[in-house]
Amino acid sequence: MGEQVRYGLIGTGMMGVEHINNLAITPGAVVTAIADPVATSLGWARAALGDRADGVAAFDSAAALAASGRCDAVIVASPNHTHRDTLVPLFDAGLHILCEKPLATTIADARWIVERAAQSPGIFWTAMEYRYMPPAADFIAQVHSGAVGPLRMLSIREHRFPFLVKVGDWNRFAANTGGTMVEKCCHFFDLMRLITRSEPVRVYCSGGMDVNHLDEDYGGRRPDIIDNSFTTVDFANGVRAMLDLSMFADGAENQEEITAVGDAARLDVFIPAGAIVHSPRTGFGNPKRPSRRVVAVDPAALAAGSHHGSTYYEHQRFNAAVRGAGPVEVSAHDGLMAVAIGTAAEISAREHRAVTMAELGL
User: Fold this and answer.
1) Which of 49, 87, 96, 187 is the S-S candidate for 122 at Cβ 3.0 to 4.6 Å?
2) 271 CB contacts (<8 Å, ≥6 apart)?
């Protein structure tokens, strides 16, 4: 297909607009089609496209976009519970696909996507942009290079704002999202697998809805999504990982903090500060010798979205894979495993017990 890739976008809400903004600064990327059943959302996409909206076809369904022949690759940014149905015509058309996280809201649907992706002539990429935040990517590379010695403990903290308002308030209900531990935390479970280079064995989650959405009512339906939790994941190689989530900590200096501890050192990364701190062991009573540096992020990438530049860097890798110039770095199987860990955490939080991955068939 040469150096130019024609993109379609399905789902033109907040994340869809972020993709449009990042495609605008991706060499060789051109948006040729958008699809959303909500006219207001299509209007947001046209506004983001600006002068580039001329000649961009608009559709009200994934099937119509897939049948148009206008696209080489399609980004799926529709609500979580629509992913499986949205993907059917895209697979049938053999298109290259970047599907937003979570891959699906159930393990069964995620398995189906993995099977169809394996049969498709197009590439399939699960959008896990947290891998591509430059400070996080640097941190991961350091851990893998032995900066802490053999990894023993991994902890991730996200202290952030509540879920934003979405079209139709779909994200207030676990039936639509898969639950907070799937919808939001799949990013972090994906990072755990990537950093530990191992597979999960057991998950324990203590969480609840204690602060957010308590006074909301949607035609007699009340939100049922976790807004804070602690989750521990035991990995097959003996590494323990922990996620500390609070969705009512808007004032935190850093939204994400990740710490890796081995027998030689501790390594921390702070986002959005972008700082990485390496703290070698010194022995009791000896002077500490931490070193600190800040990882730079392209200002244009920062300005194009709300994920610390990661969407831009992810698009450069996806675009290369579509052109045959690079590998698929986040597979459908990766997406399935992140959904599976999140599902285990949701079950654990409800039933107040540890959940093994074997129970889920994984």
Assistant:
1) 96
2) 133, 135, 136, 254, 255, 256, 257, 308
Cβ atoms within 10 Å, residue 284: 5
State the amino acid at position 164 in one-letter form: L
Q: Could you read off the pLDDT of 230-263 as tens digits, one per residue?
A: 999 999 999 999 999 999 999 999 999 999 999 9
pTM for this prediction:
0.96
55-58: which pairs have CB atoms within 8 A and are 24 or more residues apart?
Answer: 56/31, 56/32, 57/32, 57/33, 58/33, 58/34
Tens digits of residue pLDDT in 323-335: 999 999 999 999 9
DSSP-derived pairing of the beta strands 57-59 and 5-10: unpaired
**182/344 Cα distance (integer angstroms):** 9
CB within 8 A of 215, min separation 6: which ones?
Answer: none
Cα separation of the two ends of the chain: 38
Strand bridging mode 96-100 / 73-76: parallel
- What backbone torsions phi and psi does residue 176 show, to the nearest 5 degrees? -95, -30
